[in-house]
Amino acid sequence: MATKSAGAEGSSEGRGGGVGMAELAHELPSAGGESAHYEPRKPTEADFERYKTYVGQKWTGVCKWFNVSKGYGFIVPDMEEAKQHADDVFVHQSKLKMPEFRSLDEGEQVEFIVQLGKRGMEAAEVCGIGGAPLRGHRIHPLGKRKEKEIRCYNCGQYGRHKASQCKRMPQKNVKACYVCQSTAHLASECPNKEQQKKGGPTKERAPHGEEREGDAIAGEEQ
């Protein structure tokens, strides 16, 4: 089992540690499963009785949706009876058998053990078909190929570091505007915000107080 995990919300497991997704996901752009919230069918009491007969079985399926920032998603099982009932299987990143940052790509084929949780069926010991390695989502924090997908929300730089490692804002427990780096206000009150939305340059504050012109960086709410 990997030692690092993407801290997740809305899971049946406790929050994992090591990757710092609370910081990395603050400005995670919408992509794939991030672009829309997915609501699975709510299981009935009859469904839960049926689920009990599946517990411990090894199934295969396809990842239907996965939220990288929250660390969970849903699998559509190949099991015929489950397909007939439009069942989804909840999957949490802590159950994925892969090193470091754990995620699933939409459409990825998986193999897993069925468990029962409060929300219905849940996947455990998730791997590729026949024990093959999982591919994972294309968004990977601080990765080389997709480094522009993640940025430090202190200084606005993409893929270089996370907020806790930011050298431009070395003060601990000091909140800063991630648009202009000022500690006098937050991004929601930034005077440059409207100019930023229009795609124009904003004045970016350098470490020693001087101002310089920087490219606008679109801010999104988590």
TrEMBL record:
Start-end of Basic and acidic residues biased regions: 191-215
Keyword presence, Cytoplasm: yes
SUPFAM superfamilies associated with the record: Nucleic acid-binding proteins, Retrovirus zinc finger-like domains
Region (Disordered): 1-43, 190-222
Pfam families: CSD, zf-CCHC
Keywords of this entry: Cytoplasm
Compartment annotation: Cytoplasm
Assigned protein family: Belongs to the lin-28 family.
Protein known as: CSD domain-containing protein
Organism: Heterodera schachtii
